[in-house]
Amino acid sequence: MSKRLASFKGPSTPTSSPVSQSNRPIIPASPSRVSESTFHRKLRTLLQELRSISLTWDDIVLLDGLKAARMLVDTRTELDNALSLLSPDGQPRTEVVGPKLAIMDKSITQLDTVAAKLQKQLRRMSAVVDNLEALYHEAQKTKGAKWCHEEALWVSWPLEKFVTSLADITAPYYRSLNLITELIDTLRSHSVTFEASRDAISQWVAQPYLEEDGWDAKWEDLCAVEIERWDAK
Question: Quick one: pLDDT at residue 93?
């Protein structure tokens, strides 16, 4: 649970006179909350899978991808610096240029692999969204449209709100993948300037399309509040 929401768990401010237990309002539990159905469990599992995919996405981008991108830029910079020290009519030595080019080619291959891995995560995410829709239609047949639309599953959100709200979760990840593909194409060129490379690295780290609409920014805290046993092992 986020720090923002943790304050709701703290003790209330004491008053000068005790409050009678009988005067406290009793909030009835949602009928769905009394005992979890298959739909509760399936929904939780699907949303946890979305979280897992988003975490894998970040690892691919910020660990594997960033390492390869920085290696490419650093190696290219080292080679440019070495070549700049040559006299105007001097010839670069093979033992200097060859290994640097090999490292750069390997880094470019690794970046292409990163893009392919992200495409795989997007396909997984789209499959989960399809499964959420299938779960909703199954619940409509079993529980009825009113239950899907009105019955709070744990706290306040009914099944329909979860499914419709998550229908477009892949959109920011598609935009992010398109940006990463463009950045890889920028870094791929051996004629790219150092300034352009540095800007590409900055955008790579920022993942601007996920800053507000990615899983961690938009959904993690909400699920921690709305779904019981969200972090249960």
Answer: 63
Residue 166 has pLDDT above 90, yes or no: yes
| pLDDT at 181 (0 to 100) | 98
What pLDDT score does 39 carry? Answer: 96
Q: Which two tokens stand for residue 158?
A: 């009914």
Task: Give alpha helix (H) positions in 144-214.
Answer: 145-150, 159-165, 170-188, 194-206
Q: Model confidence over 14-66: pLDDT tens digits?
A: 343 444 444 444 444 455 555 789 999 999 999 999 999 999 999 999 999 99
Q: Which of 51, 22, 63, 11 lies closest to 219, judged by CA?
A: 51
Kindly list the distances between the CA atom of residue 11 and the CA atoms of 7, 17, 26, in Å, as whole numbers in the listed order. 9, 16, 19
Give the pLDDT score at 148: 97
The CB density around residue 117, as the number of other CB atoms within 10 Å, is 17
**Helix (H, G, I), strand (E, B), or coil: what is residue 158?**
strand
Distance CA 39, CA 43 (A): 6
Q: How far apart (Å, rounded) are the C-alpha atoms in residues 200 and 105?
A: 18
Q: Report the 3 state secondary structure along 109-149.
A: HHHHHHHHHHHHHHHHHHHHHHHHHHHHHHHHHHHCHHHHH
- Residue 9: both structure tokens together: 């768990």
Dist CA 131 CA 163 (whole Å)? 10
What confidence score (pLDDT) does residue 97 get?
Answer: 82
Q: Which residue spans within 18-108 are E strands per DSSP? A: none
With CA atoms as reference, report the closest residue to 118 among 161, 74, 174: 174
- The pair of structure tokens assigned to 106 is 């390997």
